Task: inverse folding
């Protein structure tokens, strides 16, 4: 019997990022200091807050003047009107409003709470929206690390998001490079020899959820996680990948009809 294993470990020595920083260099230095290296097929997962902060993508809430619509949504949701204005600025559409949440479609096409804006792990009065282009950031970091370590790897940018019909949040991929976000297994056989007809696996989301266990949500201080030993890396290797293929168009989304 073949026993498959997978290894996850957080990168230590990642400093607190508060301004313009070279994330690729920071990760390279942390890898070298930790002595873990990078190997063929490694997947580097990076929390989106780290990307936004390094790209100086901050929202200063005191600079925002809430509109009448923002004030109305703030009253419905119980949120700070300034934060609601920021949510609206980052959104294409408001989908649902409830106690302490506003579900929107972001400018990137993600449907999530509060347009993915994060108020944790930033200074007072600040918030971080999603990275402007997480796929681009992932690609640039991947190419830099591949050049530095001379190995084929993948990079995934992660966020923490909730799910319909379930309590609790999980790690989710919002950008990727070097690996296809969807593993299409149609045509393969199951254990009984039946051909799979519709099976597609959101692999990058599964990897992001696994990494989230290491990253944590409080003061763990491990915003970069390496996954080693994922045996489908070569199958899913794709230097032209992006996260858009996982986004369901509105017309196909039965929960928004």
Result:
């Amino acid at each position: 019997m073949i026993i498959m294993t997978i290894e996850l470990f957080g990168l230590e020595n990642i400093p607190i990022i508060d301004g313009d920083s070279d994330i690729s260099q920071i990760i390279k230095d942390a890898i070298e200091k930790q002595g873990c290296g990078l190997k063929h097929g490694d997947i580097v997962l990076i929390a989106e807050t780290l990307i936004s902060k390094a790209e100086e993508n901050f929202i200063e809430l005191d600079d925002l003047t809430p509109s009448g619509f923002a004030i109305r949504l703030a009253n419905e949701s119980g949120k700070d009107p300034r934060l609601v204005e920021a949510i609206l600025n980052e959104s294409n559409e408001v989908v649902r409003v409830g106690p302490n949440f506003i579900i929107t479609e972001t400018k990137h096409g993600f449907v999530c709470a509060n347009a993915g804006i994060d108020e944790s792990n930033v200074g007072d009065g600040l918030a971080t929206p999603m990275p402007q282009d997480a796929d681009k950031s992932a690609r640039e970091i991947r190419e830099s690390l591949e050049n530095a370590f001379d190995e084929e790897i993948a990079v995934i940018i992660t966020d923490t998001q909730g799910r319909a019909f379930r309590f609790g949040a999980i790690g989710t991929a919002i950008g990727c490079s070097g690996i296809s976000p969807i593993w299409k297994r149609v045509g393969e056989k199951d254990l009984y020899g039946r051909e799979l007809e519709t099976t597609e696996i959101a692999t990058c989301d599964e990897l992001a959820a696994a990494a989230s266990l290491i990253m944590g949500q409080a003061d763990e201080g491990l915003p970069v996680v390496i996954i080693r030993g994922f045996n489908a890396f070569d199958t899913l290797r794709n230097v032209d990948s992006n996260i858009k293929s996982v986004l369901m168009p509105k017309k196909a989304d039965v929960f928004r009809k």
